[in-house]
Amino acid sequence: MMKIINLRRYYQLDTDLFVEVEDEVAELLEKSLKADKAYDARVSYHNAYYSLDVGDGIEGKAIKPVESAEELYLKAVAVKELFDAINKLPEKQRMRLFRYYIEGMAETELAKKEGVVIPAISKSIKKGRKNLKKLLKKD
């Protein structure tokens, strides 16, 4: 079913703008508006107003510094070197490192999945890190 809403209620518009939207969209906009009002009420109640002119360092936390082109390039080169080194590892080490560090799989879970003992997984991960370190130093 469709519902007609005034977008001025949800956005900072100068004039009324009526549109027809699905009921789910209208409900979502209403929930968002209520959440914003609740947040504003909490800020007001706790006097949690901040100024970037205070000099307490909050602006450093609020504003993410823009990286220079050189920094972005160096980061991209480092990521490429890391991926190249990872791809040079033996398949088992590469997959175990991926599952352990990226997927967050525990050693016991890995051992159970592969049908091997836990020390074999531990040793493989340790050796994979060592090989990765060597490959990165070599490049």
TrEMBL record:
Recall the GO molecular function terms of this protein's record.
DNA binding; sigma factor activity
SUPFAM superfamilies per the record?
Sigma3 and sigma4 domains of RNA polymerase sigma factors
Q: Which Gene3D superfamilies does the entry mention?
A: Winged helix-like DNA-binding domain superfamily/Winged helix DNA-binding domain
The organism sits in which domain of life? Answer: Bacteria
Q: What is any Pfam family matched here?
A: Sigma70_r4_2
User: The RNA polymerase sigma factor 70 region 4 type domain covers which part of the protein?
Assistant: 82-132
Q: Which InterPro entries match?
A: RNA_pol_sigma70_r4_t2 (IPR013249), RNA_pol_sigma_r3/r4-like (IPR013324), WH-like_DNA-bd_sf (IPR036388)
Gene Ontology terms: biological process: DNA-templated transcription initiation
Give the protein's recorded name: RNA polymerase sigma factor 70 region 4 type 2 domain-containing protein
